[in-house]
Amino acid sequence: MALKTKSFDSQSNELNFIGGGTSVEGNIETKGSLRIDGKVKGTVKSGDTLTVGSNGEIIGEVFVKNAIIGGRIEGNVVVEEKLILESTSYLNGNLRSNKLIIDEGAYFSGESEMASKYNMEKNSSKGKESREEKPTLSEASVTSEAIPK
């Protein structure tokens, strides 16, 4: 299901839903926003905001502009701008984002890399994968003591 609003710019204002009780296996790509309350197994790409509800689950890679995570993700997450891990979230995988907010009670296990959007695009376009060639603002490895649901 997609909702469209009229826009005069080139960006999409679509809001796409994967409802509770729905399972999708395969890759999803949208220029607009996406809300997942069901289960997705595969790569998820969104040109705008990804919201994973408290009952939502993604098993696979995530590439988005912004993300608000309240459910589970098993896989690596790359966010161009801001990632919010809500208190009900569970993330098992590495993340890369320009801004990161982790609410108390959130579970995160993996490495985090903070980088500006410019550096993320520059490294992605060059295809560079070695750590020495990736300029970063800060880097941390975090494991939470919270017990996942």
What does this structure look like?
This protein has 149 residues and is mainly β. It has one domain. Helices cover 7% and strands 51% of the residues. The protein has 1 helix and 15 strands. It has one helix at residues 117-126; strands at residues 2-3, 15-18, 23-25, 28-30, 33-36, 39-41, 44-52, 57-59, 62-69, 72-74, 77-85, 90-92, 95-102, 107-114, 138-143. The chain has a 15-stranded mixed β-sheet that branches. The chain is globular. The model is unreliable at 3-10 and 126-149 (pLDDT under 50).
User: Any idea how many domains?
Assistant: 1
Low-confidence stretches: 3-10, 126-149
**Which range best describes the helical content: under 10%, 10-25%, 25-40%, 40-55%, 55-70% or over 70%?**
under 10%
- Compute the average pLDDT: 81
Straight-line N-to-C gap: 29 Å
Q: Rg, please?
A: 15 Å
Question: How are the SSEs ordered, and which strands pair?
Answer:
Blueprint: E1 2-3, E2 15-18, E3 23-25, E4 28-30, E5 33-36, E6 39-41, E7 44-52, E8 57-59, E9 62-69, E10 72-74, E11 77-85, E12 90-92, E13 95-102, E14 107-114, H1 117-126, E15 138-143
Parallel strand pairs: 2-5, 3-6, 4-7, 5-7, 6-8, 7-9, 8-10, 9-11, 10-12, 11-13, 12-14, 13-14
Antiparallel strand pairs: 1-2, 14-15
